[in-house]
From TrEMBL:
One of its GO terms (cellular component) is cytoskeleton. It comes from the Eukaryota. This is Uncharacterized protein. InterPro entries: SAXO1/2 (IPR033336). Residues 221-234 have a biased composition (Basic and acidic residues). The lineage of its organism: Eukaryota, Metazoa, Spiralia, Lophotrochozoa, Mollusca. It comes from Mytilus galloprovincialis (Mediterranean mussel).
Amino acid sequence: MISTFMADYKANWNVKKRTLCKPEETNYRDDSIKFDGTTTQNQEFKAWTVSKPEVPLWGRKPVYKQPMEGMALNSTYSMDYDDPKVIVAAASMKPPPREEDIIKASGDGKAFKPSSTYNNTFKEWRGAQPAKTFLVKSQYNPPRDKMEFESTHRKCYTGQLAQKAEIIRHSSEHRQLNKDGIFYFQTTYNATYKDHRPKSCPGTGRGKMPVAVKTAWQEDLSSKKELNESHDSGIDMIECEN
């Protein structure tokens, strides 16, 4: 198989390979003397002595001096409120009980029976019955007539049988073709352009073509010839001479 580019532009087989400008790797020379660490920067640039900046008098902080006397632990609270030595419980504000409020038991030896005005006045009513309820209990009775499953909407609005609307959508032509189910190899390009195919002939080069390339080109040309004869009946294929 050969293309137009391969047929027109021939490769130069006898061209000499160009020389590279890359330097050789053998230019490195090993030095027997060890490196002492001196460089051009170390010789030219020396370390500059920098003095520590002095702080002015107004910016100096005073030095802490420890006081000679002890710290006074007196405070306003300790001076105003004295610490009581003995803590006395606060006196109760509840008044003491009186003699007439204390009920003393009699000396007959009987147990005390508690009684009150309510217990002496209101006695239990025996024979009382619970009040009757006024709630009317209704018993469910199923209806005798059958239920009609019709609503107000169904009684008032009766439906009318209508035919199904036709589809207004326009169907394309290719949907209506090939109703018999047979597939046709037709395209828009083939239906529009009815002219014959143009004859193709690769250009001939002046240089000598290699044997392998020439053989592949001849095989491809023969296959194209058979294909063109099948498509374009009655038209002869013009072969190009090399």
